[in-house]
Write a sequence for this structure.
């Protein structure tokens, strides 16, 4: 057990990891359970199954029949939700601190007792298909789906978490239940509690609710390994619309590779401070290189960059909205010129200082809420451990301008990228 | 940290008739500013739709002291943000920074509000960005359904009937001089409100705000009263066909009670029951869960200084539009006809009052609450009285407010989706 003042990291005898942090700034607490399962663990035929299982965990157990859990949380003034991502599925509730045990009761119950009623599965199929159709309404989703499919031909990171439509139409209740039964186990889960309580008392409460749940055999490992890319890949999406988009993704290092923080600094110079999690950030990026080169020149109306921490190697992506009177080809050409510049000339010390200060500020902002702190702790544990976020600023501060140039040369190569254009078809 | 109240919110009026409110929170090293000026789309002509929003955005394009590039270089270098955004009644502004950078962001905020120069090339760049956004809007089912709803729910001459962003035709026609004129006639310190929340000392924060804005003159638009908004007495429906889409969005609603209406809190409880509580109230239970007709279906009560909308919003498969609408209208009829049970009423009241600590967890949440207190003159003790006000609301009041503002057979309805197959 790792225990410091108001902080505990431990493992229950059934294998469940537990992280607890006291924060006494407001009378609230946030409780999360993270499962190490997401679309990374899927295969053709059952794509989207992790996300659908997440939906089914809101459809009732014998103790909390459908609709009663979220109402119980709401009655206490809390918020309650779930999320599915490539590497994890997570459920959380944030409540007035005195009522946090309710969240533990609900989560321990549905870890093993979700019903998967066949009628509920059937009704939820329509909801899930509707969710996918809503996403398909967005041209940037359509482009992203094709670009990611191009970038990954082996690993399931190439498939969006929502899954393929044909799988959503054909997946069965038994397949959903089997997925749940395989991955929802204390030894494949992580509980995170942050808030206005005593850490020891919270640990006892977690023991009381989760300690008796039996562990299961280890979940099957993911063996998919994306082969090295051997040349540039390009996709064009021709669909209805009147605005064009450009998306370029480069295969990127994982958080376990020293290059990760240098690419983070590179991204900050190119497109400004990222939100650092999939929740996005709140900062503008108008002093970044690509904003100046693409938006201020009136070729594009927006540019953003994303480098997401993941378990297996993922991509660094750049996305631009093309201005009405221009084409993806023109935006790509201007982007290419800027990427060449950052490969040939080092970034400035000032650009590095800026990236570090932005990271410091964003961590300070996210620490205002217990929900934000619990998210960081759990998210970091999924691909590394909680100290990863604590050491983030320190690791970023160690990056040099030479490092940035080296990783620009290593990763921003044509042969390492997939380029996508959304070319709108007139109506 | 306790619920903010009179002894820990400091309210101070400057001689130029602006108002500053400060609440200290030493728990986090950040500071948030939120505020507004009484200028907005209310003050633009309908043929100039989008002028107020464009003027607000253009403030950031350069000042007498700083070029656009310099504004953002200074802000982004310290991980801070400053934003100005034009609404209907107000132009809102806000900042977020580490406490050590408050003097810088305050200086930039005052600079953009007081000394904008509206550079020609900057205005043209913004115009191009807005025109592209308006092109995107024509293919966005959610935005087009809302646009249709507002045009149907409010009389043509009412500012609520117009798009805040404007239209391709109006944005194309606005000149730099229009922006300069709109700014010159309506931007000033009179009735400006600034809220500061965070790791500051109150006296020091007041002094900094006074130094930044104390000598700004006060002048504001003379506003005619809002045109009357008659109750909707028939079905007003418009379908916007957008080829290539796989989901339809629907927005069904009414002009609703202003925030200052005596029955506004009744409406808040009613709306929670209808489309908020748990996973989106009765609409979530019946339209989404029981019938599986939608990915989302919820209701939203805007309030605001005027009759802001009370809407039901849903995203549905195009073949399910009619059954979803029937189900939504059933729920509206039910809340009008049947008294809500004591249990359901108490659950909703508990949610509304119990969630206050969560809403007050961050500096932004506190600033937003204080801003509403000032805007609607609710009293500095409002957050402490809030639970009592909600607890008093009865099932009869909920049914009453539903009957005053909603109607299952007379409404404005915007639908946007693919052509019927």
């Amino acid at each position: 057990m790792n225990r410091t003042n108001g902080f505990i990291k431990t493992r229950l005898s059934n294998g469940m990891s537990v992280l607890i942090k006291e924060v006494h700034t407001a009378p609230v607490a946030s409780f999360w359970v993270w499962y190490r399962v997401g679309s990374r663990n899927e295969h053709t035929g059952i794509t989207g199954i992790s996300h659908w299982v997440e939906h089914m965990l809101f459809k009732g157990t014998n103790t909390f029949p459908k609709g009663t859990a979220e109402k119980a949380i709401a009655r206490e003034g809390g918020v309650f939700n779930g999320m599915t991502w490539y590497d994890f599925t997570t459920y959380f509730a944030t409540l007035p601190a005195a009522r946090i045990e309710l969240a533990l009761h609900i989560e321990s119950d549905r870890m093993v007792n979700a019903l998967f009623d066949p009628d509920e599965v059937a009704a939820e199929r329509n909801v899930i298909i509707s969710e996918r159709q809503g996403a398909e309404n967005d041209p940037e989703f359509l482009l992203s789906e094709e670009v990611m499919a191009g970038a990954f031909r082996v690993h399931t990171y190439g498939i969006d978490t929502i899954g393929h439509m044909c799988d959503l139409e054909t997946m069965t209740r038994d397949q959903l239940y089997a997925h749940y039964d395989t991955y929802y186990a204390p030894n494949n889960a992580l509980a995170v509690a942050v808030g206005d309580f005593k850490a020891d008392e919270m640990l006892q409460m977690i023991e009381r609710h989760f300690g008796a749940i039996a562990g299961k055999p280890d979940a099957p490992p993911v063996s998919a390994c994306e082969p090295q890319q051997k040349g540039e890949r390009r996709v064009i999406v021709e669909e209805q619309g009147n605005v064009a988009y450009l998306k370029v993704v480069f295969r990127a290092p994982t958080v376990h590779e020293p290059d990760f923080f240098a690419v983070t600094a590179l991204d900050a110079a190119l497109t400004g401070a990222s939100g650092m999690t999939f929740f996005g950030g709140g900062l503008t990026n108008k002093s970044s290189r690509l904003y100046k080169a693409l938006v201020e020149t009136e070729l594009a109306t927006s540019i953003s960059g994303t480098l997401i921490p993941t378990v297996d190697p993922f991509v660094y992506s750049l996305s631009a909205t093309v201005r009405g009177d221009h084409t993806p080809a023109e935006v790509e050409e201007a982007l290419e010129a800027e990427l060449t510049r950052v490969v040939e000339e080092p970034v400035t010390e000032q650009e590095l200082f800026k990236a570090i200060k932005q990271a410091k500020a964003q961590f300070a902002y996210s620490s205002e809420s217990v929900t934000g702190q619990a998210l960081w702790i759990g998210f970091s544990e999924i691909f590394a451990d909680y100290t990863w976020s604590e050491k983030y600023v320190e690791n970023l501060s160690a990056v040099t301008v030479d490092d940035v140039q080296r990783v620009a040369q290593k990763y921003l190569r044509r042969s390492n990228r997939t380029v996508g254009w959304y070319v709108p078809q007139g109506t | 940290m306790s619920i903010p109240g009179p002894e820990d919110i400091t309210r101070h009026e400057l001689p130029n008739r602006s108002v500053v409110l400060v609440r200290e929170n030493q728990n986090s090293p950040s500071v948030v500013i939120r505020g507004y000026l009484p200028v907005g789309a209310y003050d633009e002509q309908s043929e100039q739709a989008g002028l107020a929003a464009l003027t607000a955005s253009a403030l950031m394009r350069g000042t007498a002291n700083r070029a656009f590039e310099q504004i953002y270089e200074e802000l982004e270098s310290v991980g801070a943000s400053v934003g100005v955004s034009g609404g209907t009644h107000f132009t809102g502004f806000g900042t977020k920074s580490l406490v050590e950078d408050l003097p810088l962001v305050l200086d930039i905020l005052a600079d953009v509000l007081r000394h904008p120069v509206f550079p020609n090339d900057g205005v043209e760049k913004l115009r191009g960005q807005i025109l592209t956004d308006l092109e995107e809007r024509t293919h966005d089912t959610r935005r087009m359904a809302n646009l249709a709803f507002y045009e149907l729910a409010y009389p043509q001459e009412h500012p609520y009937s117009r798009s805040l962003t404007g239209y391709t035709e109006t944005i194309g026609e606005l000149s730099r001089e229009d922006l300069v004129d709109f700014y010159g006639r309506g931007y000033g310190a009179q009735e400006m409100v600034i809220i500061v929340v965070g790791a500051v000392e109150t006296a020091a924060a007041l002094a900094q705000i006074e130094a930044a804005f104390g000598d700004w003159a006060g002048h504001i638009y003379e506003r005619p009263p809002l045109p009357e908004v008659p109750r909707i007495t028939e079905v007003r429906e418009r379908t916007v066909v957008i080829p290539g889409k796989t989901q339809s969005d629907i927005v069904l609603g009414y002009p609703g009670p202003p925030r200052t209406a005596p029955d506004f809190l009744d409406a808040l409880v009613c709306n929670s029951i209808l489309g908020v509580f748990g996973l989106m109230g009765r609409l979530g239970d019946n339209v989404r869960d029981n019938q599986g007709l939608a990915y989302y279906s919820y209701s939203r009560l805007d309030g605001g200084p005027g009759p802001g909308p009370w809407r039901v919003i849903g995203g549905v498969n195009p073949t399910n539009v009619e059954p979803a609408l029937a189900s939504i209208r059933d729920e509206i009829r039910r809340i009008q006809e049947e008294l809500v049970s004591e249990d359901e009423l108490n659950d909703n009241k508990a949610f509304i009052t119990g969630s206050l600590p969560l809403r007050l967890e961050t500096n932004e949440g506190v600033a937003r609450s204080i801003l509403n207190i000032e805007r609607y003159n609710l009293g500095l003790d409002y957050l402490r009285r809030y639970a009592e006000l909600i607890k008093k609301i009865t099932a009869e009041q909920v049914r009453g407010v539903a009957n005053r503002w909603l109607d299952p057979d007379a409404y404005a309805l915007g639908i946007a989706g693919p052509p019927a197959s």
About this structure: Chain B has a mean pLDDT of 95. Chain B has 16 helices and eleven strands. The longest helix of chain B spans residues 120-138. Chain B touches chain A through 67 residues (CB under 8 Å).
